[in-house]
Specification:
Two copies of one chain form a homodimer. Chain A has 110 residues and is mostly helical. Chain A is built from five helices and two strands. A two-stranded antiparallel sheet of chain A has the order 1-2. In chain A, a hairpin with a 2-residue loop joins strand 1 and strand 2. In chain A, 19% of the residues are buried. The C terminus of chain A is likely disordered. The interface between A and B is medium-sized, with 25 and 25 residues. The structure holds a DNA duplex (30 and 30 nucleotides).
DNA sequence: AAATTGTGAAACCGAGTAGTTGCACATATA
DNA sequence: TATATGTGCAACTACTCGGTTTCACAATTT
């Protein structure tokens, strides 16, 4: 059973859960109200998110609040670093092109 | 058939392909040499990456060079924005705690 | 104590996935 | 022209995945 963050965020429902929990900790029932599928289906998604540590449990009486663990999500960000360099340089190139067009445009109109 | 970037990067082989192609454009055969599975398996991964526009084809004689499309990868980065705010603020809090501990430590020793 | 509520776990199912082998076909090379 | 090479596509298979239904169980509420 593969259980890494990349596989975890591959599912749109799980991404939606993360988006909700990131705002404030929530119980499974509260989360399930936001989706069309059953509470059990949502609960299974939560289980997966807990297993890969994107969510953390916090028992409170008989309710369980799940909260978002940003540190784990940052691992995605770290992985993106190797590509960020590339798209930033391309944006720079695009910026240069745009700036050149702009200055030509200015030349023409002034 | 779901074909979005999140599902595309969920597979470790595809992530490895992206890492290689990000360095420079490569042919399927050249890529396949880096993996244990067959060329056809790698080719299927490439197809998926092309379908979700993370890779772009570039025919050259009978060879096909695949190159990385950073713009598409940036969509992951954009999605992360909603969480980035959170982990950055928590890091700030951690920094504050560390700074306080540090100043207490300094107090004790000076 | 009995009923209700919040939750997780197990069993099952249809669809999707990653891999394989085998084939087709176009482009280069002899 | 015959052969080798680079590539994509189709068929098949074992496995995974997301969903449902059903159950178990502990913590509240009546």
């Amino acid at each position: 059973m593969r259980r890494d963050i990349f596989q975890a965020i591959a599912d749109p429902t799980r991404r939606a859960i993360l988006g909700l929990v990131a705002l404030h900790a929530m119980t499974p029932n509260a989360l399930a109200e936001h989706f069309d599928s059953t509470r059990q289906a949502v609960s299974k998604h939560i289980k997966i998110l807990v297993e890969c540590q994107l969510l953390e449990q916090q028992q409170q009486g008989r309710e369980i609040y799940y909260q978002f663990n940003p540190q784990k999500m940052k691992e995605i960000d770290n992985w993106l670093d190797q590509f960020r360099r590339i798209w930033e340089s391309r944006f720079d190139k695009l910026d240069n092109v745009l700036n050149q067009l702009k200055s030509k445009d200015n030349d023409r109109h002034e």
